[in-house]
Amino acid sequence: MKIYFDNIATTMVHPDVYKYMLPFLSDNYGNPESLHFFGDESRTIIESSRISVAQLINAEPEDIIFTSSGTEANNLAIKGVAEARLSIGKHLITSSIEHFSVLHPYKRLEKLGYEATYLPVDRFGLVNPDDVRKALRKDTILVSIMHANNEIGTIQPIEEISKVIKENSKAYFHTDAVQSVGYLNVDINEMGVDLLSISAHKFYGPKGVGALYVRKGTKMLPLIEGGVQENGRRAGIHNVPGIAGMGKAAEILKDKRKEWVTHLISLRDPLVKGITNLVEKVYFTGHPQQRLPGHLSLCVEFIEGESMLMLLSTKGIAAASGSTCTSRALKASHVLTALGLPAEIIQGSLVLSLSPDNQYSEIEYFLKIFPEVVNRLRNMSPLYTKYLKEKGV
Q1: What are phi and psi of 371, to 5 degrees?
Q2: 299 is catalytic
Q3: Which of the residues 325, 334, 365, 367 is marked catalytic?
């Protein structure tokens, strides 16, 4: 049995999306900028997909810029706005638990003379809107707060934060909605954001294509120059097959999301209950209610996340972790650290993220295998041995 519980990393391409993309990998291969019928075919599908993506988030098609990924969309939003608004100010605000495609651009801008404020979060990973208000200044030009966190699943109060920003400053508001679009009702007008990033491969579309929503009137300079594509806002030949797939995935998601979310919750809740009943010394992370429907994050004391992943993989279970080696980083998860968790707890991080294709039989299989994996690793842990001795076991 092979079970995929790592949908925060990427989702599978929906079969209908795959079929829809095929002609644009073979017969319909024209450059969208070419002034002949081959170009017309490609240009038509790009604009059709732009409409589908816009409808997914209740935006206008002309406000959608296609990119290569959510990472590029975040970089374009942050660096593009920072450069365009340089004459107004150089102060930026974000949270301490953002994706690195937000945090790294902020660090780069700091080296260029900008000033950044990194807001703390509470033990559930929530940003306090009042902290945003306190951090705003006359020279604040951009606030970037993610909609939902990939590691802990917590959903931020974007509407409240937007209201605070609009009432107290002239700063633009950007949100990284890469993890949320596939599971939440994302409406740019209800959220009150000026810029919003998404990525197709997080909602059953292909890898290598994303989009940035930019509200009309929002000043932003291009990150990539040298072409007229996307009205000069993002140069480079379009990834026509990818954009076609993203548009199709957006259509399917808009139709199926409610059904999928109900299914995800029906799997996640017994998973939480089962882990709680079967394994001691487990700490669930993120907000218990205000979280993504198919997302579960926890830390298992006395063992390492990487070791759990390796043993789970040998049993046919794919999962993720925020611990040191798993993320190919040299330090523990900045997200879990921001929650105030001690290093010895963080190292046992495990993230399980479900998809509509997962079934209850897979939950049952996981709950059979997981305690065995934990027990095997704890039996090799000197920390666990010490714990048992202190308990008198």
Answers
A1: -60, -35
A2: no
A3: 325
Number of H helices, E strands in the chain: 13, 12
Residue listed under structure tokens 């830390």: 299
- Closest listed residue to residue 166, CA positions, set 215, 225, 117: 215
If you ran DSSP here, which 8-state letter would residue 361 be given? H
Nearest to 210 by CA among 247, 184, 185: 247
Helix H or strand E segment including 78: helix 70-84
Between the CA of residue 92 and those of 108, 140, 249, what are the distances in Å? 12, 6, 33
3-class secondary structure, 338: helix
Alpha-carbon distances of 76 from 89, 186, 193, 214, 269, rounded to whole Å? 18, 20, 15, 10, 37
CB contact at 8 A, 238 and 225: no
Question: Distance from CA of residue 147 to its chain's centroid?
Answer: 8
pLDDT tens for each residue of 288-319:
999 999 999 999 999 999 999 999 999 999 99
CB within 8 A of 320, min separation 6: which ones?
5, 6, 8, 9, 309, 326, 350, 351, 352, 353
Q: Which pTM was predicted?
A: 0.95
CA-closest candidate to residue 106, choices 134, 85, 127, 75: 75
Check whether 384 has a pLDDT greater than 90. no
CA distances to 20, 73, 79, 95, 233 from 223, in Å: 30, 10, 7, 23, 8
Distance (Å, rounded) from C-alpha 149 to C-alpha 50?
26
Gyration radius of the chain over CA positions: 22
